[in-house]
Amino acid sequence: MSERHLADLPRCDLCELSRTRTRVVLGTGPRDARLLVVGEAPGREEDLGGRPFVGRSGQLLRRLIAEEWGLGEDDYLITNAVKCRPPNNRTPRPRELAACRPWLDLERATWRPERVLAVGNVAARAVFGFRDGVGTVHGQLVTFEGGAGLATYHPAAALRGGPNVVAVMREDLRVLARWNP
To answer: Potential cystine with 37: which of 29, 78, 135, 172 (Cβ 3.0-4.6 Å)?
Structure first.
């Protein structure tokens, strides 16, 4: 594919996930939003509904963003590093991440958010190039032209790990909120 346009994304067939998905899950939110949230990949609910972060993990993430930033879900952008659900919700493979990388780059270039929040190891590696896991890199501010971002735990980890993980996520959100351009 030579020049990509976001309108072409629903027809993407660049990796094997295109054969097992129900649909491509596009990023949602206002194009002029200052915050972009990037997750790993769509889950079952997202694959069926076509919107990112609509399951239990998404509900927790949206609640934390509302409580810590005062933003409703129509106030920020939300997408995934991989746009199609991996079978059985397995972790996306490197070649799938590589196939989707230009789409994520195009979203960031089109939307140009001031702040980027990567949730989970896969998103942290895809967005910021971290080699270490979120347990090591969470809360570390990364600056880029026009903005800053950081990685935090995926809300699914908070659902499994309980209040301590939620507390870390809250503090990470506060760190990103305090960044002043």
So the answer is: 78
